[in-house]
Structures are given as structure tokens and as C-alpha cells.
């Protein structure tokens, strides 16, 4: 996967710092596709400009141009390998053979715990802080989900509506996601939730938002998922299950945690809105 980059490095003369940066990227290729130049600089105790100069030495216009190139390589190589079984009927056959006569409660509980641990181990505080900052700082926020993922989108819509202004869900039956985000701009963001079998419509929406310069916060299962190539901030969650359907407990946890970071960032600024909502829903007992 790093062969192309190694070939590029052979043709240029690097400084001591640039060699250090090159070694880091080669050793952490997948991670380097999705972190910022500042992240790399902090990890290596070098300046941000050193990282940018390194990419320009390789012939790129800057770090983002370089990252776009290596991310494309990474995605293409990973997607060329067969993914885990995602067709429900095939997963059902596999799950029946795996579960057999085992304790289904204990087995499923264990699986859910593993998915929750995955969310914590693969997304640090900085990732949540960045995602929360991008969402809170955007003018309009579009939630992009489809099929089973809409349960996450519905809950996220409820929570974010209480925290922020101009939050929209794009799964309305009368309009498709393209209709919803047709006037999206660089001041807006989409929050996409995408898991196997990935929706082509969600992919198109991410491309549309990316082309418009909008921020893309993506919750997905791996850094090589189809939408990841467009992500501004990536949060990875395991949806592994011991039956035919994806398990969304870890996704719900990650979404709620993200909303908790946003709530902390907004502080008391949403207090008046919450009081107003409670004033009127209390009249009809709609809690």
C-alpha cells in the first residue's frame, strides 16, 4: 500500500525532519490519510510548516493535496480486498452455524461490549472535539442517513435541534437527499452515517457536499468505507453482529457521545430554548 509513496521518496532529497515525517507516514499510512498536518507535527514535535514543506518537496501543492492522493490510494487498495459478508441471507446462515446451541444472551451481550470498546479505542477525545467544533461552527447541518441508519439520524435530529439552529434531516419521503442539499455551501456541513451495505445515494450526497466545500463528519465502520474519502472528520464504529443484521448499539453510543461534546461546547446558550420547548410540550404531556 505504501509502494507508491516509497517510490516518490526515492527520487527526492529530504532533510532530517522530512525523513522523520516520511517514516511516520509510512509507518502509520492509514491514520495519515485522515489526520491533519498539525496532528502529525504535534506527534513528531516539529512545526506544522515542516510537514507542509515535506509534501511540497514531493511535488504537491500542500498537505491537503498530498493527503487526498494517499487517501485515494488507501481506499482503492482496501476496497480491492473482499469485505466481510454483508448480504443478510448469507449472514443469517453464518450466524446460525456460529450461534448453534450457545447462550444467545451472553453471546450477544459480549458482541455489543466489543463494539462499544471499539468505539472508545478507535476515536480519541480530539476526534470528538473536532467533529463537535465542525458541527457547531457550521451554518446549516444536514443529517444524511438511509434505511436502518435512519434510526440514528432521527435521534440525532432530536438532540441537535435542542442544541443548535438550522439542523435538517434529509430522509423525508417526498424529497431525496440531493434535493435537500442542492444549495449546500462551504459554510454548511453534513453528518453522514454509513454502514454496509453502503448506500450509493449517501455516497453521492457526500461527493456533492465535498464538491461544494462543505464539512463532512462521517460515522462509519472503517477508514476504507466508500464515503471516507470525502470525510473532514471520521469516527469509526463497529457494527459487528452475531446475527443477520448490523448491531447499532455502538453507533448510538458514538452519536450520543458526539452530541454530549456539542452540548458541552454550547454551554448554557441552549438553556432558554430547552425551557421554551418544555413550556409547550408540558401542556400536552408530550415528553
Specify the number of helices. Answer: 14
Give me the CATH architecture of the largest domain, please: 3-Layer(aba) Sandwich
Read across the widest sheet, the strand sequence of neighbours is 2-1-3-4-5
Domain module tally:
2
What string gives the helices and strands in order? HHHHHHHHHEHEHEHEEHH
Keywords: DNA-binding, Transcription, Transcription regulation
InterPro entries: Homeodomain-like_sf, HTH_RpiR, RpiR-like, RpiR-like_SIS, SIS_dom, SIS_dom_sf, WH-like_DNA-bd_sf
GO biological process, one term: carbohydrate derivative metabolic process
Protein name: HTH-type transcriptional regulator MurR
3D structure, described in words:
This is HTH-type transcriptional regulator MurR. It contains 14 helices and 5 strands. It has helices at residues 3-10, 16-27, 29-32, 37-44, 48-57, 63-79, 88-99, 104-122, 125-136, 150-163, 177-180, 200-211, 249-266, 271-281, and strands at residues 141-144, 167-169, 189-194, 215-220, 233-236. By secondary structure, it is of the alpha/beta class. The chain folds into 2 domains: 3-79, Arc Repressor Mutant, subunit A; 93-281, Rossmann fold (3-Layer(aba) Sandwich). The protein has a 5-stranded parallel beta sheet, sandwiched between helices.
